[in-house]
Amino acid sequence: RICPMIEVFATFVLTGFxxxxxxxxxxxRMTTELLASNSFSSLCIVVALCCTCYTVPATxxxxxxxxxxxxxxxxxxxALAPLAYVPIASALPNFGKRAAMDASAxxxxxxxxxxxxxxxxxxxxxxxxxGIIVVVTFFVVSTLVxxxxxxxxxxxxxxxxxxxxxGSSRLFTFLEFSKSPLKCITRLHNDYGKVFTLNMMGQxxxxxxxxxxxxxxxxxxxxxxxxxxxxGFMKPVFGAGVVYDCPARARQTQFQSMAYGLxxxxxxxxxxxxxxxxxxxxxxxxxxxxxxxxxxALSEITILTASRCLHGDDVREQLFEEVANLxxxxxQGVTPLSVFFPYAWTTAHAKRDRARKRMVDLFSGxxxxxxxxxxxxxxxxxxxxxxDVFMNAKYKDGRGFSDDEVTGLLIALLFAGQHTSSITSxxxxxxxxxxxxxxxxxxxxxxxxxxxxxxAGRPVTFDDVNNMPLLHDCMREALRLHPPLVLxxxxxxxxxxxxxxxxxxxxxxxxxxxxxxxxxMRLPSVFPNPDTFDPDRFSEPRSEHKTPYAYLGxxxxxxxxxxxxxxxxxxxxxxxxxxxxxxxxxxxxELPECDYEAMVVGxxxxxxxxxxxxxxx
Length: 617
Prior knowledge:
The chain is α+β, with helices and mostly antiparallel strands.
């Protein structure tokens, strides 16, 4: 590890050099984040990025402002140079103004003039070439020095492709990882074992695989492994002071209120709501027979049922269409770019910000109307939705949740449940319908549960939901094979010890640790025949999921998903209604692949099913 004093000195030098340009603020932000790892390679990448950011657009801007006589094509290119500041500089709030660009370019141009340097095409080419040389030099140095420092520590995890020419192998690994993280991590597991480190964009990311290695990931407290450091890009969606953007105590209170709203006594009231929404949707959209995209249909049912349970009857019946459209804009506003530049000036981010502001206005109106009710009116409506829970929740100091915080928490719950539930219900239904023997057993189980005088047409109860073990295991198996969240990350705040196969590794502060439920739950040593859909692996006597931190369908440890009970109720009620009403047949010969380009990984491709209404329901 390089001496921290050298890094601090270098930071001040870079700050002084770059404060004359709009890239200064961005550079300071990048420097702060990258130098948090205290690694020489991070410093080198900061310098390289600074040189790249400064030389190319700045020199072209200077050339344009000098108003010299230029060839037409070059003059047009230089005229567009100031726009090079926009996408990066506007990544910061309240920054990237054209006035700042013009002032920067003018000041730099005057600097050249005072030094007696004539701006010529040769000078521009020389400065750009110098920037490229600096970038390449620092990239090579960061690769070699970073690899040397890590390879000399016997307790560090093995580094993937530590010594390569100009980082070519690292680049190929990064591209492979971006295209299919599951295949990439599986290959690297075969080459490097259950604990290994990747270097991506100057950040060391250590992958942990297998129950033993994954245990510290789930057992460590927030002061050792932090979620907020890696999921801060969700702040524009959830809002300030919500979930990852609030102190630990406040976040704990918010989570406690969520858990209170999802306890069993509330879930019992949700069963009937979910069933009625599902029946109404099928009556309206499906009819007696036809072909439908199952993922689309179940996504629509999921948001309908979630809105009824989380937002309440008044929102579902009066504002649902607008809320659904706003949620779509919020959802589309979370892209891979958002992870690195959550405030980048893009159309998706602009729609996201407008949608959140409108969402706050809508729910503020609902909250105001509810609070204007008399106690008798409120009691008569007997609300059990989570909006009501958040409205009445209070922090330790007695302060209630603001309208903005209530809206942010509702958005967070919808984000947590909408994609995951719709994806899980889709995979579960496809796997069941694809296997005739399992489909037959599911039909038998449903007939047994609804074997009373009223038959399959009677309402579902909470006890019925808990009496469907095969459907329950099918859902768990679908989550094992295709978890919606394929990567989970934490920032290392204190040096972390990890053990795997009898060897202990030390992961330094500043690194990022990552687990992959997709890979971890397909290890043959943990789940035999891991690529086979086999729901019986969860029942006695096999119980393959009983090993601690082996099954990660809903995370684990301190940060396990608090909505898993609601998810089981929601998905099982929807599929119970579906399988009792219709005979389902998968149309394509093969099940769809996973869409690893999405933030939440679902099926990609043909999800059509052919359905026929059963004679007696």
